[in-house]
Design a protein that fits this description.
This protein is an alpha/beta fold. It folds into three domains: 85 residues, no CATH class; 189 residues, Rossmann fold (3-Layer(aba) Sandwich); 68 residues, Arc Repressor Mutant, subunit A. The protein is 44% helix and 12% strand. It is built from 17 helices and twelve strands. A nine-stranded mixed beta sheet has the order 1-2-6-5-4-3-7-8-9, with helices on both faces. The N and C termini lie far apart (80 Å).
Length: 399
């Protein structure tokens, strides 16, 4: 029998059960699944006898690569875990489903994680996770962020959503919440990747936000229904955020920040790692600056993010200052203008010598500048007008 989406039902049930037994991101689990398959792995756990646990060696254990103490813990979890069919029913009651390798909805880029690939994902919401992940960007950052961090997170979330990109984040306080709200406010797509069951909300203060994400987007997690978050689960959650997306943008992060862990995973997986700079005096941006100083790419808005992660031709607009009247002058005329000092007048001969032009050409250029209001004549000499002094010697002019 095959479950919805393509994975055999026995495999689906086995993988759902494993999410109760093993912790996310445990490499040993990945090796078991690769060598024995999900059904056989679960069978060996369920049929194991506690008497097989011999402290000091693992030669007699049904599955390799685990210490006897850890094996005993797995067996205890297996005994206490509800039947996987019950978990699937509970998830369905909350509008959620279990997606695993072999399903049409499984995002193939998660396979880049190798043996730390998720056993499966519990998904709450209507859209296809696979389709959304194909054009997604992670926006993460500090929980205790500044007002600047909130503004930048919301601006990036809204800007990416308006450009048709899915905004992925962790549903936490601070930058994560701002990114989700920015995307939601733009009636765009957003995904919250949780470190607990998708039928729970953490932090509890985000109940309304996560419910809204589930209505308009997707809520995703590796943990089964009812599972609670732990510090290690938050850390492991970051690898899923990085793997799901085309790139990770960090907005405000101190040196010891989980958001930087997401960026490091992005780099490890050959994804784009980007950072939004903050004040150099801000400790909450110190980690971002360290990322940028090494291998990260500086971005300041959604257009620059899309230029990096998008298809060929999705370019950010060129950034330049305002066009000033002097910028429109022909090169020879501009050289004559540049030969005039800020104060005082010069003769035609002095101006021509400075500009590298003959007398007749210099006089012609001066009269051209006179008609444009740049210079005025005083006897046989020429000098800049007050308006020209402000134009030429301010904001990038000669000094």
């Amino acid at each position: 029998m095959t479950g919805e989406g393509g994975a055999p039902e026995a495999v689906r049930l086995a993988r759902a059960r494993l999410t109760r037994i093993v912790e996310p991101g445990w490499e040993v689990t990945g090796r078991w699944l690769r060598e024995f398959g999900a059904v056989e792995t679960v069978r060996r756990i369920d049929e194991a006898d506690e008497a097989e646990v011999v402290v000091g060696g693992d030669e007699t254990l049904p599955l390799p690569g685990v210490r006897p103490e850890r094996w005993a813990g797995l067996l205890a979890r297996a005994r206490e875990a509800p039947a996987p069919a019950r978990d699937l029913e509970r998830a369905q009651e909350r509008g959620a489903r279990f997606v695993c390798p072999g399903d049409a909805e499984w995002p193939g880029q998660l396979d880049d994680l190798g043996d730390v690939r998720p056993v499966g994902l519990w998904v709450r919401g209507g859209p296809s996770l696979r389709m959304w992940a194909l054009r997604s960007v992670a926006v993460v950052g500090a929980r205790a962020c500044t007002d600047y961090g909130v503004r930048m997170g919301a601006s990036l979330g809204a800007g990416l959503a308006e450009r048709g990109w899915v905004v992925v984040s962790g549903g936490a306080y601070g930058v994560d919440a701002a990114a989700h709200r920015g995307a939601l406010g733009a009636t765009g797509a957003t995904v919250a990747v949780l470190a607990c069951g998708v039928d729970r909300v953490y932090p509890r203060g985000h109940t309304q936000l996560i419910d809204r994400v589930a209505e308009q987007g997707l809520v995703v997690g590796e943990l089964p229904p009812g599972a609670h978050p732990t510090p290690s689960r938050f850390i492991q959650r970051n690898r899923v955020i990085a793997a799901l997306t085309r790139g990770t943008v960090v907005v405000e992060a101190a040196y010891r920040s989980g958001a930087l862990g997401t960026a490091r995973w992005a780099q490890r997986l050959c994804r784009h790692a980007m950072g939004v700079p903050g004040p150099v005096t801000s400790s909450v941006s110190a980690g971002v600056h360290e990322l940028l100083r090494k291998e990260g790419v500086l971005v300041t808005d959604a257009a620059e993010v899309v230029e990096l992660v998008g298809e060929m031709g999705e370019l950010a607009p060129q950034r330049r200052g305002p066009v000033l009247p002097r910028d429109l002058l022909p090169p020879d005329t501009a050289r004559v203008l540049a030969a005039l000092p800020a104060h005082g007048a010069r003769s035609v001969a002095e101006i021509g010598r400075e500009a590298g032009a003959g007398a007749d050409d210099t006089i012609g250029r001066l009269y051209e500048l006179h008609s444009l209001g740049f210079v005025e004549r005083h006897g046989d000499d020429w000098q800049l007008t007050r308006q020209a002094i402000r134009s030429v010697f301010s904001d990038g002019g000669p000094s």
